Amino acid sequence: MALKIYNTLSREKELFTPITPGYVGMYVCGPTVYSDVHLGNCRTFISFDIIYRYLTYLGYKVRYVRNITDAGHLEGDRDEGDDKFSKMAKLQQVEPMEIVQKYTLGFRHVMQLLNNLPPSIEPTATGHIAEQIQMTQQLLDNGYAYEVNGTIYFDVEKYSKEQNYGILTNRKLEDLLEGTRDLDGQDEKRGRLDFALWIKAKPEHLMQWPSPWGMGFPGWHIECSAMSKKYLGKKFDIHGGGMDLAATHHTNEIAQNQGCYHTGPANYWMHTNMLTVNGTRMSKSLGNGFLPEQLFTGNHPLLEKAYAPMTVRFFMLQTHYRSTLDFSNEALQASEKGLKRLWDAFETLNKLSSTTEKAADAELDAKVNKLVADFDENMNDDFNTAKVLASMFELVPIINSIKDGIIKADAIAASTLALMQQKFKAYLEDVFGLQQTGAANNNALSSVMELLIDIRKEAKAKKDFVTSDKIRNQLSAIGISLKDEKDGGVSWSA
Ligand code: AMP
Ligand code: ZN
Q1: Which CATH superfamily is domain 4-272 in?
Q2: Which of 2, 13, 144, 430 has its CA 20 to 30 A from that of 59?
Protein backbone atom coordinates (compact mmCIF):
# COMPACT_ATOMS: atom_id res chain seq x y z
CA MET A 1 0.00 0.00 0.00
CA ALA A 2 1.27 3.47 -0.85
CA LEU A 3 1.32 6.22 1.76
CA LYS A 4 -2.02 7.70 2.75
CA ILE A 5 -2.34 10.84 4.83
CA TYR A 6 -5.41 12.06 6.66
CA ASN A 7 -6.01 15.55 5.32
CA THR A 8 -7.85 17.95 7.64
CA LEU A 9 -9.04 19.83 4.55
CA SER A 10 -10.93 16.92 2.99
CA ARG A 11 -11.48 15.06 6.26
CA GLU A 12 -10.33 11.91 4.49
CA LYS A 13 -7.27 9.73 4.14
CA GLU A 14 -5.79 10.64 0.78
CA LEU A 15 -3.10 9.00 -1.30
CA PHE A 16 0.02 11.09 -0.84
CA THR A 17 1.13 12.61 -4.14
CA PRO A 18 3.86 15.20 -3.76
CA ILE A 19 3.92 18.22 -6.08
CA THR A 20 7.44 17.36 -7.25
CA PRO A 21 8.15 13.63 -7.49
CA GLY A 22 10.67 12.53 -4.88
CA TYR A 23 10.59 15.81 -2.95
CA VAL A 24 8.42 16.88 -0.01
CA GLY A 25 8.07 20.44 1.31
CA MET A 26 6.75 20.42 4.88
CA TYR A 27 6.03 23.36 7.18
CA VAL A 28 5.25 22.89 10.88
CA CYS A 29 4.33 25.73 13.22
CA GLY A 30 7.10 25.90 15.78
CA PRO A 31 7.22 26.92 19.42
CA THR A 32 6.41 30.32 20.85
CA VAL A 33 9.58 31.06 22.76
CA TYR A 34 8.47 33.28 25.64
CA SER A 35 8.41 30.31 28.03
CA ASP A 36 9.52 26.68 28.27
CA VAL A 37 7.85 24.12 26.04
CA HIS A 38 5.69 21.66 27.94
CA LEU A 39 5.17 18.00 27.21
CA GLY A 40 2.07 18.73 25.09
CA ASN A 41 4.14 20.84 22.71
CA CYS A 42 6.71 18.04 22.65
CA ARG A 43 4.06 15.56 21.56
CA THR A 44 3.32 17.60 18.45
CA PHE A 45 7.01 18.01 17.60
CA ILE A 46 7.72 14.30 18.15
CA SER A 47 4.78 13.40 15.88
CA PHE A 48 6.14 15.55 13.07
CA ASP A 49 9.65 14.26 13.66
CA ILE A 50 8.33 10.73 13.04
CA ILE A 51 6.54 11.94 9.90
CA TYR A 52 9.76 13.62 8.72
CA ARG A 53 11.77 10.48 9.46
CA TYR A 54 9.28 8.19 7.73
CA LEU A 55 9.11 10.34 4.58
CA THR A 56 12.91 10.24 4.50
CA TYR A 57 12.86 6.46 5.06
CA LEU A 58 10.53 6.16 2.04
CA GLY A 59 13.25 7.84 0.00
CA TYR A 60 11.83 11.37 -0.28
CA LYS A 61 14.13 14.33 -0.05
CA VAL A 62 12.34 16.42 2.55
CA ARG A 63 12.69 20.13 3.22
CA TYR A 64 11.29 20.43 6.72
CA VAL A 65 10.72 24.01 7.85
CA ARG A 66 9.75 24.62 11.48
CA ASN A 67 9.70 28.22 12.61
CA ILE A 68 10.47 29.89 15.89
CA THR A 69 7.70 32.31 16.92
CA ASP A 70 9.61 35.09 18.62
CA ALA A 71 7.36 38.11 18.08
CA GLY A 72 3.80 39.23 17.81
CA HIS A 73 1.99 36.70 19.96
CA LEU A 74 -0.70 38.82 21.58
CA GLU A 75 -2.57 38.33 24.80
CA GLY A 76 -5.92 36.72 24.03
CA ASP A 77 -7.44 36.78 20.56
CA ARG A 78 -8.56 40.40 20.39
CA ASP A 79 -5.45 41.76 18.69
CA GLU A 80 -4.94 43.82 21.79
CA GLY A 81 -2.44 44.25 24.60
CA ASP A 82 1.26 43.66 24.66
CA ASP A 83 2.81 40.77 22.89
CA LYS A 84 3.86 38.05 25.28
CA PHE A 85 7.57 38.55 24.61
CA SER A 86 7.46 42.21 25.64
CA LYS A 87 5.38 41.33 28.67
CA MET A 88 7.85 38.69 29.82
CA ALA A 89 10.84 40.95 29.11
CA LYS A 90 9.33 43.71 31.25
CA LEU A 91 8.60 41.27 34.05
CA GLN A 92 12.15 39.93 34.05
CA GLN A 93 13.71 43.32 33.27
CA VAL A 94 15.66 42.03 30.29
CA GLU A 95 15.69 42.58 26.54
CA PRO A 96 12.94 40.67 24.69
CA MET A 97 15.66 38.98 22.64
CA GLU A 98 17.15 37.62 25.88
CA ILE A 99 13.83 35.93 26.52
CA VAL A 100 13.85 34.62 22.96
CA GLN A 101 17.43 33.35 23.23
CA LYS A 102 16.86 31.62 26.56
CA TYR A 103 13.77 29.71 25.49
CA THR A 104 15.02 28.94 21.98
CA LEU A 105 18.12 27.29 23.42
CA GLY A 106 15.99 25.47 25.99
CA PHE A 107 13.65 24.25 23.26
CA ARG A 108 16.51 22.96 21.09
CA HIS A 109 18.05 21.19 24.07
CA VAL A 110 14.79 19.39 24.84
CA MET A 111 14.33 18.45 21.17
CA GLN A 112 17.83 16.97 21.18
CA LEU A 113 17.22 14.99 24.38
CA LEU A 114 14.06 13.58 22.82
CA ASN A 115 16.15 12.77 19.72
CA ASN A 116 14.06 14.87 17.34
CA LEU A 117 16.06 15.64 14.22
CA PRO A 118 16.66 19.33 13.61
CA PRO A 119 14.48 20.74 10.82
CA SER A 120 16.13 21.66 7.49
CA ILE A 121 15.38 25.33 8.11
CA GLU A 122 14.38 26.99 11.40
CA PRO A 123 13.39 30.56 10.49
CA THR A 124 12.48 33.13 13.12
CA ALA A 125 9.62 35.61 12.83
CA THR A 126 11.86 38.53 13.83
CA GLY A 127 14.28 37.58 11.03
CA HIS A 128 11.53 37.89 8.41
CA ILE A 129 9.82 41.20 9.15
CA ALA A 130 10.48 42.50 5.62
CA GLU A 131 8.70 39.50 4.07
CA GLN A 132 5.73 39.98 6.40
CA ILE A 133 5.46 43.67 5.52
CA GLN A 134 5.63 42.77 1.85
CA MET A 135 2.85 40.22 2.17
CA THR A 136 0.70 42.64 4.15
CA GLN A 137 1.22 45.24 1.40
CA GLN A 138 0.21 42.67 -1.22
CA LEU A 139 -3.00 41.96 0.69
CA LEU A 140 -3.73 45.70 0.80
CA ASP A 141 -3.03 45.96 -2.93
CA ASN A 142 -5.28 42.99 -3.66
CA GLY A 143 -8.10 44.56 -1.67
CA TYR A 144 -8.23 41.98 1.15
CA ALA A 145 -6.93 44.26 3.87
CA TYR A 146 -7.50 47.78 5.19
CA GLU A 147 -5.65 50.20 7.41
CA VAL A 148 -6.96 51.91 10.53
CA ASN A 149 -4.55 54.23 12.36
CA GLY A 150 -1.42 52.31 11.45
CA THR A 151 -2.91 48.86 12.05
CA ILE A 152 -3.71 46.63 9.09
CA TYR A 153 -6.62 44.18 9.29
CA PHE A 154 -7.55 41.29 7.05
CA ASP A 155 -11.06 41.79 5.70
CA VAL A 156 -12.74 38.44 6.36
CA GLU A 157 -16.15 39.60 5.16
CA LYS A 158 -14.83 40.63 1.75
CA TYR A 159 -12.82 37.41 1.52
CA SER A 160 -15.84 35.29 2.46
CA LYS A 161 -17.80 36.60 -0.49
CA GLU A 162 -15.33 34.84 -2.77
CA GLN A 163 -13.90 32.02 -0.69
CA ASN A 164 -14.97 29.61 2.01
CA TYR A 165 -13.24 31.10 5.08
CA GLY A 166 -14.09 28.16 7.38
CA ILE A 167 -12.96 25.52 4.87
CA LEU A 168 -10.28 23.95 7.06
CA THR A 169 -12.52 23.09 9.98
CA ASN A 170 -15.71 22.79 7.95
CA ARG A 171 -17.57 25.62 9.67
CA LYS A 172 -20.04 28.05 8.18
CA LEU A 173 -19.45 31.78 8.44
CA GLU A 174 -22.67 32.26 10.44
CA ASP A 175 -21.51 29.73 13.02
CA LEU A 176 -18.13 31.41 13.25
CA LEU A 177 -19.73 34.79 13.70
CA GLU A 178 -21.95 33.43 16.43
CA GLY A 179 -18.86 32.50 18.42
CA THR A 180 -17.47 36.05 18.43
CA ARG A 181 -18.48 39.05 20.50
CA ASP A 182 -20.10 42.15 19.03
CA LEU A 183 -17.82 45.01 18.09
CA ASP A 184 -18.03 47.98 20.41
CA GLY A 185 -17.15 51.65 19.95
CA GLN A 186 -13.55 50.95 20.89
CA ASP A 187 -12.94 48.53 18.05
CA GLU A 188 -11.09 49.69 15.02
CA LYS A 189 -11.80 46.70 12.88
CA ARG A 190 -14.83 46.56 10.61
CA GLY A 191 -15.82 42.96 10.93
CA ARG A 192 -15.98 40.71 13.95
CA LEU A 193 -13.79 38.04 12.35
CA ASP A 194 -11.20 40.44 10.94
CA PHE A 195 -7.72 39.85 12.31
CA ALA A 196 -4.57 41.98 12.44
CA LEU A 197 -1.77 41.52 9.92
CA TRP A 198 0.29 44.39 11.28
CA ILE A 199 -0.23 46.18 14.58
CA LYS A 200 0.63 49.77 15.37
CA ALA A 201 3.02 49.89 18.32
CA LYS A 202 2.70 52.25 21.23
CA PRO A 203 5.97 54.12 21.94
CA GLU A 204 6.64 51.97 25.02
CA HIS A 205 6.23 48.71 23.10
CA LEU A 206 9.57 46.93 23.25
CA MET A 207 9.65 45.10 19.92
CA GLN A 208 8.73 47.30 16.97
CA TRP A 209 9.84 47.82 13.42
CA PRO A 210 9.39 50.57 10.80
CA SER A 211 6.80 49.87 8.11
CA PRO A 212 4.95 51.86 5.43
CA TRP A 213 2.22 52.36 8.09
CA GLY A 214 4.51 53.57 10.88
CA MET A 215 6.21 51.71 13.72
CA GLY A 216 4.57 48.40 14.50
CA PHE A 217 4.89 44.65 14.83
CA PRO A 218 3.41 41.69 12.95
CA GLY A 219 0.35 39.65 13.71
CA TRP A 220 1.06 36.01 14.51
CA HIS A 221 -0.65 34.48 11.45
CA ILE A 222 1.23 36.51 8.81
CA GLU A 223 4.56 35.29 10.21
CA CYS A 224 3.96 31.67 9.21
CA SER A 225 2.53 32.64 5.81
CA ALA A 226 5.56 34.78 4.99
CA MET A 227 8.09 32.19 6.17
CA SER A 228 6.45 29.20 4.47
CA LYS A 229 6.20 31.14 1.19
CA LYS A 230 9.84 32.17 1.40
CA TYR A 231 11.27 28.70 1.93
CA LEU A 232 8.69 26.39 0.35
CA GLY A 233 6.95 28.55 -2.24
CA LYS A 234 3.34 29.54 -2.77
CA LYS A 235 2.16 25.94 -2.70
CA PHE A 236 3.87 23.08 -0.93
CA ASP A 237 2.98 19.58 0.21
CA ILE A 238 2.35 19.39 3.96
CA HIS A 239 1.45 22.00 6.57
CA GLY A 240 1.18 20.82 10.14
CA GLY A 241 0.69 21.77 13.75
CA GLY A 242 -1.39 20.89 16.78
CA MET A 243 -5.17 20.61 16.40
CA ASP A 244 -5.70 23.75 18.44
CA LEU A 245 -4.14 25.79 15.62
CA ALA A 246 -6.60 24.74 12.91
CA ALA A 247 -9.59 26.91 13.79
CA THR A 248 -7.83 30.28 13.87
CA HIS A 249 -4.12 30.30 13.04
CA HIS A 250 -4.26 27.93 10.07
CA THR A 251 -7.65 29.16 8.90
CA ASN A 252 -6.14 32.65 8.71
CA GLU A 253 -2.98 31.39 7.01
CA ILE A 254 -5.12 29.90 4.24
CA ALA A 255 -7.06 33.18 3.87
CA GLN A 256 -3.83 35.20 3.72
CA ASN A 257 -2.28 32.96 1.07
CA GLN A 258 -5.46 32.88 -0.99
CA GLY A 259 -5.71 36.67 -0.76
CA CYS A 260 -2.08 37.06 -1.81
CA TYR A 261 -1.41 34.24 -4.23
CA HIS A 262 -4.87 32.86 -5.10
CA THR A 263 -3.99 29.47 -3.64
CA GLY A 264 -3.94 27.90 -0.21
CA PRO A 265 -0.40 27.18 0.99
CA ALA A 266 -0.52 23.39 1.29
CA ASN A 267 -2.07 20.32 -0.31
CA TYR A 268 -2.20 18.31 2.91
CA TRP A 269 -3.05 19.81 6.29
CA MET A 270 -2.03 17.59 9.18
CA HIS A 271 -3.07 18.14 12.80
CA THR A 272 -1.87 16.27 15.84
CA ASN A 273 -4.20 15.63 18.73
CA MET A 274 -3.65 16.92 22.23
CA LEU A 275 -1.77 15.53 25.18
CA THR A 276 -4.13 15.72 28.13
CA VAL A 277 -3.88 15.52 31.91
CA ASN A 278 -6.92 13.89 33.49
CA GLY A 279 -8.70 14.51 30.22
CA THR A 280 -7.90 18.25 30.08
CA ARG A 281 -5.61 19.61 27.40
CA MET A 282 -2.11 20.35 28.68
CA SER A 283 -1.55 24.07 28.14
CA LYS A 284 0.57 26.98 29.22
CA SER A 285 -2.42 29.08 30.16
CA LEU A 286 -4.12 26.40 32.26
CA GLY A 287 -0.92 25.86 34.23
CA ASN A 288 -1.25 22.07 34.01
CA GLY A 289 1.86 21.71 31.89
CA PHE A 290 4.58 19.26 32.83
CA LEU A 291 8.01 20.39 31.69
CA PRO A 292 10.28 17.84 30.03
CA GLU A 293 12.97 18.61 32.59
CA GLN A 294 10.58 17.79 35.44
CA LEU A 295 9.98 14.41 33.84
CA PHE A 296 13.64 13.67 33.29
CA THR A 297 14.50 14.54 36.90
CA GLY A 298 11.28 13.38 38.56
CA ASN A 299 11.11 16.79 40.17
CA HIS A 300 7.35 17.37 40.30
CA PRO A 301 4.95 16.55 43.15
CA LEU A 302 2.71 14.49 40.87
CA LEU A 303 5.52 12.37 39.44
CA GLU A 304 6.27 9.07 41.17
CA LYS A 305 9.74 8.88 39.62
CA ALA A 306 11.99 10.23 36.86
CA TYR A 307 11.40 9.07 33.31
CA ALA A 308 14.11 8.89 30.64
CA PRO A 309 13.60 10.94 27.46
CA MET A 310 13.29 7.73 25.43
CA THR A 311 10.54 6.44 27.73
CA VAL A 312 8.65 9.68 27.07
CA ARG A 313 9.21 9.36 23.31
CA PHE A 314 8.08 5.73 23.33
CA PHE A 315 5.00 6.67 25.38
CA MET A 316 4.02 9.12 22.64
CA LEU A 317 4.56 6.55 19.87
CA GLN A 318 2.22 4.06 21.45
CA THR A 319 -0.77 6.20 20.47
CA HIS A 320 -1.70 7.34 16.97
CA TYR A 321 -1.02 11.04 16.47
CA ARG A 322 -4.68 11.86 15.76
CA SER A 323 -5.95 10.36 19.04
CA THR A 324 -5.78 12.12 22.37
CA LEU A 325 -3.18 10.82 24.77
CA ASP A 326 -3.60 11.08 28.51
CA PHE A 327 -0.55 11.62 30.63
CA SER A 328 -0.15 9.49 33.78
CA ASN A 329 2.49 7.79 35.90
CA GLU A 330 0.97 4.37 35.18
CA ALA A 331 1.11 4.90 31.43
CA LEU A 332 4.73 6.08 31.58
CA GLN A 333 5.76 3.16 33.76
CA ALA A 334 4.09 0.75 31.33
CA SER A 335 6.00 2.44 28.49
CA GLU A 336 9.27 2.08 30.36
CA LYS A 337 8.69 -1.66 30.74
CA GLY A 338 7.48 -2.03 27.16
CA LEU A 339 10.49 -0.28 25.73
CA LYS A 340 12.90 -2.42 27.74
CA ARG A 341 11.14 -5.56 26.53
CA LEU A 342 11.52 -4.35 22.95
CA TRP A 343 15.23 -3.49 23.28
CA ASP A 344 15.92 -6.86 24.94
CA ALA A 345 14.16 -8.61 22.06
CA PHE A 346 16.12 -6.49 19.58
CA GLU A 347 19.42 -7.56 21.12
CA THR A 348 18.33 -11.19 21.16
CA LEU A 349 17.18 -10.93 17.56
CA ASN A 350 20.55 -9.60 16.45
CA LYS A 351 22.29 -12.61 18.00
CA LEU A 352 20.10 -15.16 16.21
CA SER A 353 21.43 -16.71 13.04
CA SER A 354 20.11 -19.15 10.51
CA THR A 355 21.26 -20.69 7.26
CA THR A 356 17.97 -22.44 6.50
CA GLU A 357 16.85 -21.65 2.99
CA LYS A 358 13.45 -23.25 3.36
CA ALA A 359 11.47 -22.68 6.53
CA ALA A 360 10.65 -25.85 8.47
CA ASP A 361 7.46 -24.20 9.75
CA ALA A 362 5.91 -22.51 6.72
CA GLU A 363 2.96 -21.20 8.72
CA LEU A 364 5.16 -19.49 11.28
CA ASP A 365 7.43 -18.16 8.55
CA ALA A 366 4.43 -16.61 6.78
CA LYS A 367 3.19 -15.13 10.05
CA VAL A 368 6.56 -13.48 10.76
CA ASN A 369 6.74 -12.13 7.21
CA LYS A 370 3.23 -10.73 7.50
CA LEU A 371 3.95 -9.02 10.85
CA VAL A 372 7.13 -7.46 9.45
CA ALA A 373 5.34 -6.29 6.29
CA ASP A 374 2.74 -4.71 8.57
CA PHE A 375 5.35 -2.18 9.79
CA ASP A 376 5.29 -0.39 6.43
CA GLU A 377 1.58 -1.08 5.88
CA ASN A 378 0.65 0.63 9.12
CA MET A 379 2.97 3.57 8.65
CA ASN A 380 1.52 3.98 5.17
CA ASP A 381 -1.89 4.12 6.78
CA ASP A 382 -1.51 7.70 8.05
CA PHE A 383 1.61 7.02 10.14
CA ASN A 384 0.07 4.54 12.56
CA THR A 385 3.01 4.07 14.95
CA ALA A 386 0.75 2.40 17.54
CA LYS A 387 -0.07 -0.47 15.19
CA VAL A 388 3.57 -0.90 14.14
CA LEU A 389 4.48 -1.32 17.79
CA ALA A 390 1.66 -3.82 18.25
CA SER A 391 3.17 -5.92 15.41
CA MET A 392 6.60 -5.65 17.00
CA PHE A 393 5.25 -6.83 20.35
CA GLU A 394 3.63 -9.81 18.59
CA LEU A 395 7.06 -10.75 17.26
CA VAL A 396 8.77 -10.51 20.67
CA PRO A 397 7.58 -13.92 22.04
CA ILE A 398 8.56 -15.57 18.75
CA ILE A 399 12.07 -14.08 18.99
CA ASN A 400 12.39 -15.15 22.62
CA SER A 401 11.14 -18.66 21.87
CA ILE A 402 13.73 -19.12 19.13
CA LYS A 403 16.42 -18.00 21.58
CA ASP A 404 15.17 -20.43 24.24
CA GLY A 405 14.99 -23.30 21.73
CA ILE A 406 11.21 -23.64 22.17
CA ILE A 407 10.95 -22.81 18.50
CA LYS A 408 13.70 -24.45 16.43
CA ALA A 409 16.08 -22.09 14.66
CA ASP A 410 15.23 -23.60 11.27
CA ALA A 411 11.51 -22.95 11.74
CA ILE A 412 11.84 -19.70 9.80
CA ALA A 413 13.95 -19.09 6.71
CA ALA A 414 17.27 -17.24 6.93
CA SER A 415 15.86 -14.57 4.62
CA THR A 416 12.89 -14.06 6.97
CA LEU A 417 15.22 -13.71 9.94
CA ALA A 418 17.42 -11.25 8.05
CA LEU A 419 14.40 -9.18 7.03
CA MET A 420 13.13 -9.10 10.61
CA GLN A 421 16.58 -7.98 11.86
CA GLN A 422 16.81 -5.28 9.21
CA LYS A 423 13.28 -3.91 9.77
CA PHE A 424 13.55 -3.90 13.56
CA LYS A 425 16.71 -1.85 13.30
CA ALA A 426 15.34 0.52 10.66
CA TYR A 427 12.14 1.14 12.62
CA LEU A 428 13.45 1.37 16.16
CA GLU A 429 16.44 3.54 15.30
CA ASP A 430 15.71 5.42 12.05
CA VAL A 431 11.94 5.79 11.84
CA PHE A 432 11.05 5.95 15.53
CA GLY A 433 14.31 7.63 16.54
CA LEU A 434 14.69 5.58 19.72
CA GLN A 435 18.08 5.32 21.37
CA GLN A 436 19.21 2.72 23.86
CA THR A 437 20.21 4.25 27.18
CA GLY A 438 23.84 5.15 27.04
CA ALA A 439 24.05 4.45 23.31
CA ALA A 440 24.70 8.09 22.53
CA ASN A 441 27.57 8.16 25.04
CA ASN A 442 28.98 4.91 23.72
CA ASN A 443 28.98 6.23 20.17
CA ALA A 444 30.79 9.37 21.25
CA LEU A 445 33.34 7.35 23.23
CA SER A 446 34.02 5.09 20.25
CA SER A 447 34.70 8.10 18.03
CA VAL A 448 37.04 9.66 20.60
CA MET A 449 38.91 6.37 21.01
CA GLU A 450 39.33 6.04 17.27
CA LEU A 451 40.82 9.52 17.21
CA LEU A 452 43.23 8.80 20.08
CA ILE A 453 44.35 5.51 18.53
CA ASP A 454 45.04 7.37 15.28
CA ILE A 455 47.08 10.08 17.02
CA ARG A 456 49.08 7.42 18.88
CA LYS A 457 49.76 5.57 15.63
CA GLU A 458 51.02 8.77 13.99
CA ALA A 459 53.21 9.54 17.02
CA LYS A 460 54.74 6.05 16.91
CA ALA A 461 55.42 6.38 13.18
CA LYS A 462 57.34 9.59 13.94
CA LYS A 463 59.12 7.82 16.79
CA ASP A 464 57.49 10.27 19.21
CA PHE A 465 57.27 7.70 22.00
CA VAL A 466 56.66 10.34 24.67
CA THR A 467 53.27 11.10 23.11
CA SER A 468 52.36 7.49 22.32
CA ASP A 469 53.21 6.37 25.88
CA LYS A 470 51.35 9.33 27.35
CA ILE A 471 48.18 8.32 25.52
CA ARG A 472 48.47 4.68 26.61
CA ASN A 473 49.33 5.50 30.24
CA GLN A 474 46.72 8.17 30.74
CA LEU A 475 44.02 6.01 29.22
CA SER A 476 45.11 3.20 31.47
CA ALA A 477 44.84 5.52 34.48
CA ILE A 478 41.14 6.07 33.70
CA GLY A 479 40.52 2.38 33.18
CA ILE A 480 40.80 2.05 29.39
CA SER A 481 43.38 -0.38 28.10
CA LEU A 482 44.85 -0.49 24.61
CA LYS A 483 45.98 -3.71 22.99
CA ASP A 484 48.27 -3.86 19.96
CA GLU A 485 46.93 -6.64 17.77
CA LYS A 486 49.04 -8.95 15.59
CA ASP A 487 47.56 -7.52 12.40
CA GLY A 488 48.86 -4.06 13.29
CA GLY A 489 45.46 -2.81 14.47
CA VAL A 490 44.75 -1.57 17.98
CA SER A 491 41.76 -2.62 20.09
CA TRP A 492 40.57 -1.08 23.32
CA SER A 493 38.47 -2.10 26.29
CA ALA A 494 37.02 -0.12 29.17
P1 AMP B 1 2.85 27.00 21.16
O2 AMP B 1 4.28 27.17 21.56
O3 AMP B 1 1.90 27.16 22.27
O4 AMP B 1 2.49 27.85 19.95
O5 AMP B 1 2.67 25.49 20.70
C6 AMP B 1 3.56 24.80 19.87
C7 AMP B 1 2.87 23.59 19.27
O8 AMP B 1 2.42 22.70 20.30
C9 AMP B 1 1.63 23.93 18.44
O10 AMP B 1 1.63 23.15 17.26
C11 AMP B 1 0.48 23.54 19.35
O12 AMP B 1 -0.65 23.18 18.61
C13 AMP B 1 1.06 22.33 20.06
N14 AMP B 1 0.41 22.04 21.35
C15 AMP B 1 0.06 22.92 22.34
N16 AMP B 1 -0.52 22.26 23.39
C17 AMP B 1 -0.53 20.94 23.05
C18 AMP B 1 -0.99 19.73 23.71
N19 AMP B 1 -1.54 19.76 24.92
N20 AMP B 1 -0.82 18.55 23.06
C21 AMP B 1 -0.24 18.49 21.82
N22 AMP B 1 0.20 19.59 21.16
C23 AMP B 1 0.07 20.80 21.75
ZN1 ZN C 1 2.16 28.93 12.37
Answers
A1: HUPs (3.40.50.620)
A2: 13
